[in-house]
Amino acid sequence: MNTMLLRKSVLGIAGLAFAGGLAAGPLHATAAHAETPVQGKPVAVTVQADKPDNTKLIPHGVQGQQSHIDLNDEQTANAKAIIAATKKAGLPERAAVISIATSLQESKLENLGHLGDANDHDSLGLFQQRPSSGWGTPEQITDPEYSTTAFLKGLRQVDGWQDMPLTQAAQTVQVSAYPDAYAQWEQQAADLVAQHWNS
């Protein structure tokens, strides 16, 4: 092995070790730079710390087998609307993960109107909320910001929701006939929050 190749390998490993050490540092740091001379040229390692921390997004780890769907532009826009409403409500990233996972289960992030015979009673919108159960008018429930805010209001009323497994927190708000179904969407929801929280 020639000396130049060995030097690059050692410096590459040192750079990764340095970056790994900074990633565990304070969340609010904007960037860190390491300068290691290589033949007179500095090598910069930048760590971006403005993305949500995965331990905050999935504090209990995912539970059970995970599902995933490819999202179209409308579904992505609805995920972004849920994130925006969560931020506007002053709630953390975990609330957005719970909200998006709930919507993935309830409507696949589609803002559903009345589905006729296929409808579950009078369920509507991203969270399949029911006007007859006091969630709001059909017009309100089919507004992504309103429906997310209504879901988050229910979530806030759940004592200790921040420390609950996702499916328990979602089920306490939604009272679904399939309470464990929310868990399968936790990873995709966390990925969406990580991708769009700061966009």
UniProtKB/TrEMBL annotation:
The organism of origin for this protein: Micromonospora olivasterospora
Signal peptide start-end: 1-19
Organism superkingdom: Bacteria
Protein's recorded name: Secreted protein
The entry's keywords: Signal
